[in-house]
Automatic annotation (TrEMBL):
Pfam families: RhaA. Keywords: Cytoplasm, Isomerase, Manganese, Metal-binding, Rhamnose metabolism. InterPro entries: L-rhamnose_isomerase, Rhamnose_iso-rel, Rhamnose_isomerase, Xyl_isomerase-like_sf. The lineage of its organism: Bacteria, Bacillati, Actinomycetota, Actinomycetes, Micrococcales. This is L-rhamnose isomerase. One of its GO terms (biological process) is L-lyxose metabolic process. Its EC number is 5.3.1.14. GO terms for molecular function: L-rhamnose isomerase activity; manganese ion binding.
Amino acid sequence: MTSFSDIRPLLAEQAIELPSWAFGNSGTRFKVFGTPGTPRTIQEKITDAATVNDYTQLAPAVALHIPWDKVDDYAALREFAAEKGVRLGTVNSNTFQDDVYKFGSLTHVDDAVRRRAIDHHLECIDIMHETGSRDLKIWLADGTNYPGQGDMRGRQDRLAASLGEIYARLGDEQRLVLEYKFFEPAFYHTDVPDWGTSYAQVTALGEKAMVCLDTGHHAPGTNIEFIVMQLLRLGKLGSFDFNSRFYADDDLIVGAADPFQLFRILVEVVRGDGYGADSPVAFMLDQCHNVEDKIPGQIRSVLNVQEMTARALLVDRDALDAAQSAGDVLGANDVLMDAFYTDVRGDLAAWRESRGLAGDPMRAYLASGTQERIAAERVGGTQSGWGA
Ligand code: PSV
Ligand code: MN
Ligand code: MN
C-alpha cells in the first residue's frame, strides 16, 4: 500500500505556472463582465499570481503573452517578479489578432505575412532571453473554413519551414512547444489540429521542440490520458495547458468539470516519469475566469491539480502491476479507483501546515482582506487579451 507519508516529499516538487491572462477580465462574444480588483497592468497581474503562490507554494512562475504583456524593460519586469517571489515563465506568441493574419500566419501563402509572423516569434525569443524564460509556446489559429479554401499540404509545408526558422534561433537552454487544437477559430480544417501533427512537426525540428497538450483542445470522448502516455513514451511531452471543458474550449477551472479525467491524466504523468522537479514536462494553467474572482479561481485551480496529483501518486503500482499481469480486470480497476476515492484533503491540509502555510489556502485568502483591498485600490481593471 502506498501511504500519504510516502508521497509527502514528492508533493513539494509540484510547480504550476499561472497564465497572466487569467488575471484580466475575460468573457465570451456575448459579454465581458468586469470583476472588482482586476489588475490594470502586467505588474499587478504578477502581484496577484505571487499572491496565489504565497498561499499555496504551488505556483512559482507566471506565463506571459506577447503583445498583451509587452513592456519596455523586460529585465526590470523579471526583477519585479523576483521581488514578489515568482519568476517569469513561458512566453506565448500571438499571431491571431491582427487583420494581416486573417488567412493564416506561419502557414500563410504570402511570404510577407509569413515573414511578419516568423519575426514576431524571433522577437519573443529575444524577450525570453531577457525574462529568463525557457519555453516559447506556439498556438496557431491557422486553418480554413471551407473545403478548397486553402491547400492543406502547402500550408503544412510552409508551417514546417516557418517553424524551422524559429527553431534555429532558440538558445541552448530554450525550447519550443507547439500546441494543437482540433477546431476554432477555423472550422473546416486547422493546421495543427492534433497531437500527431504537432508531434510530426516538432520531431522534424529536433530535441528542443516538444508538444504542448491543452486539456481543452480535444473532441468530446477523446482518451486524453492515452495521448499523455504516448507523448511521454516518445519523449515529446513538453507541457500541459490545464483547464476543463464541458463543450468546446471552455477554459474553465481545471478539475472542475471532470476530476476523474484529471486524475487519469496525472496517473499517466506519474507512470511516464513526467512528474517531479527533474521532469521536462511543464505544468501550466490556461484558463479564464469570466464570472468568478480571479485570485480565488487560480487558487482553486492549483489546489485541484495538487489534490489529483496526490491521489495519482497514491496508486499502488505493485498491486496494479500484479492485478494487470494476472488478468484480474476488476482487481486492477479497484486499485486505481481506491486511489481516486481516497480523500486526501485532511492530509494535504496537515502537510501545508507543516510547511508554514494555511491548511485551507482558499479560506485564508478570503479572510485576509486582500480581495477587498484590491477592489478598492484598483479602479478600471483591464481586460485580458481575450476580452479585447
Ligand atoms: C486558444 O485556444 C488558446 O486558449 C490556446 O489554448 C492558447 O494556449 C491560449 O489561447 C493562449 O494563447
Ligand atoms: Mn492553451
Ligand atoms: Mn485554448
